[in-house]
Amino acid sequence: MSRFLGYFDWKRTDGLWFAVLLAAAFALPHFIENDYYINVLVLVFLYAGMASAWNIIGGMAGQFSLGHTAFVGIGAYTSTLLFNYVGVSPWLGMIAGGLLSMLMAALIAYPVFRMRGVFFAMATLAFGETVRILLMASRKYVDMPYGLSINYDPGFIRMVFEDRSSYAMLTGAFLIIVTIFAFGLSRSYIGSYLRAIRDSEEAAVASGIPMRKYKMIAFLISAFFTSIGGTLLAQYILYIEPSSVFSTAISIDLPLMALLGGIGTIAGPVIGAVIALPLRDILLETFGQSAPGLHLVIYGIALIVIVIVLPHGLLGGVKSIRERFVSRSHARSEREEPK
Amino acid sequence: MLEITNLHAAYGDAKVLYGIYLKVEPGEVVAIVGSNGAGKTTLLRSICGVVRPTEGSIRLNGEEVAGKRTHELVDKGLIMVPEGRRLFPRMSVRRNLEIGAYSNRARPHLAERLDYVYRLFPILKERSEQLGGTLSGGQQQMCAIARGLVATPEVLMIDEVSLGLAPVMISRVYDAIKAIRDLGVTLLMVEQNVNQALSVADRAYVIQHGRVALSGTGKELQGNEEVRRIYLGLNSTEEELS
Amino acid sequence: MDTLIQLIISGALLGGVYALAALGLNLIFGVAKVINFAHGEFLMLGMYAGYWLMTLTGINPYYGAPFIAVAFFLLGAVFYLGIMRFTIYRPELTQVFVTLGLSIALQNLALMFWQADYRTIQTMPQGMSSLQLGGMHLPTDRVIAFGFAMVILIAVIIFLRKTFTGRAIEAVSQDLMAAQLMGINPQKIFVLTFGLGIAITGVAGGVLIPSFYAFPSVGTFFVLVAFVVVVLGGLGSVTGTIVGGLGLGIIETLGGYVAPDLKEALPFVLLILLLAIRPHGLLGIKGAEKETLK
To answer: How many CB atoms lie within 10 A of CB A309?
Structure first.
């Protein structure tokens, strides 16, 4: 066990973070009575998990995908269709969705990974839209209503719960699992390969790192977990339709949260989700009444400002403040030392 | 004409130049030599504004120009032919030359300058419609130098004159440089090939680790042992110990 | 056979307009190496500009195009100086998010001020709404829009080739540092390019509105169209934009005839295929898809 643990590059604060996460996921839900806040908690955990999943390919490997909503949708639709029409438990349907998403990811990887940067983003954006359109077009051949509902019939096997705290624990567990994977990936040799690829593809190739293999690994893992998130979303809201789960807004939200907290870090997406979701709700509350769309105007402007001012997200901002502090105190102590 | 004092420059946290001094008189050919990584290219880039000096003074005809932006310096006649030539790949030779006269200073004289460089480098006239990206290394260098001349330079700076060129090309380019020198153009060149450089230069500076290690006339330096040692990247103590 | 010709001509008319819609994007990308995800929103604003111009002053966008062009040139300059200037030397993801943020903000501003209603205008008096040419019925508005497109596209090509400023723009797009060494002020060129690119996009919107409905999120459709045109015709190549536009227009019209359900997905599928097989497009520069500002 200790040899296994030794594979990873542990830092001092890691234990602390894990403890916090565990407490948040399993203890916190019991203390929050208010329905509204519990709802926020459920969604924060869920989006944090999906943002972390995105971060694996987007932040760690540097392949900026704007099409992850495809995996959310595939996950949501697969488990829901299997449940509604075949009676398969969403726990299994979730895995099926995840596998299907991995398959889609593998298929799309060949064309899209040939591109870098913005073009990769464009291609994945197009990919996300394409899946949605294909789904909608398929309704001509398969008799399927526009929106799918899941029966409210609480039961563990049906992954439907009566009280929200159970959902919070569910999504909390999801977040913890994704975080563990992200952590494992990041602190292992795979993580350093991914970072090498992110920082300079040419150098990585020259060092003999089989790029396609590792990009693919990251992409598949990312797709799998994002897809699981899709299933959980469907099971929470109990209603899905193409525009809700195959939505460009989701595709933008996930990288946005990762960016806000600190892209490429493990805690970043979580912090991002913790801030972004409640903030958006507050914006909606404050401005949504006066004029339709105003809160989104502010959201858009905020996005612009944040990206320019904090390119490394909040964690990056904190880091640079700390660094400036450290160098200043070093300089001071150097001057004070007797020569 | 060009006077540099105590020039310091860095790329972010990596300091490259530590107090360079340098002088170029009108009509002179001055060479900057030194081993790889000594800071020669950084020096030229600092002079022409691509890199911002952190400290020091650069005076062109008495006017302080350190820290000014590249395009402003071009208007004052500080022209650089960059390392690697950097012709516009999808423009013809003629277009490349013409855009050399973009600045306010050079534009009125475009026609006569074009004539002048076509006479100096007849091969450019031959291939005037060929795309810059398809020329050979030596032809590109000649085109790049010609492009620099079209800009009516006060001082023409050439970075890494012979880098990446086949020996026969190098001698052709140096013939061209001698022709330019004979026409009175003031030249400041960075050159890895010390012998070639010293054969045309009036004076030279030897740069090592971002500082001027030696300077003198071409003849003085040609026979100098120190130059050989510095160029090979050894310093005196190392040699003594071995 | 007749149907085929009618479809091709229809497609070409559409394609010309697509090319115009994409030109601004391509121009800006070629010079600043920035993909403007808010491009569709500028087009949308152009459409609304055309709408309000006609509704409030009675001037139709064909005559009003110069006003739109000037207004949008200023808008483009502000866009660069106020926002994009800070993203040029930053990692690409900054540009992506900044332009995405702008896209969201603009879409919702339009929603706030003009609501979600679909709007269009009538520019032709009764009876003139379609032209008879060689036995085919062609919508007049589309023909005029096509005309505008061709004139502007050719004017831009001439500008880039024949004038010093145009060549300076070309130079910056090919090698920024070398361009600076020629005495070209990159800031001026960026302002000019953004101004020009957005102005063209505004005019494109203006001539589109008689044929298409305007609504706040119409940009999302057009931005993908523009992407496909740019990738198909060639990143950074203006001539390529014409080819790409015509190509897409014709493919889409033919495809729409054959399989109307999948018509919506066509641009996306085409985009992915193109990016996979030939990312530099038909006339573009090889490796342009890997370029960043040097």
So the answer is: 9
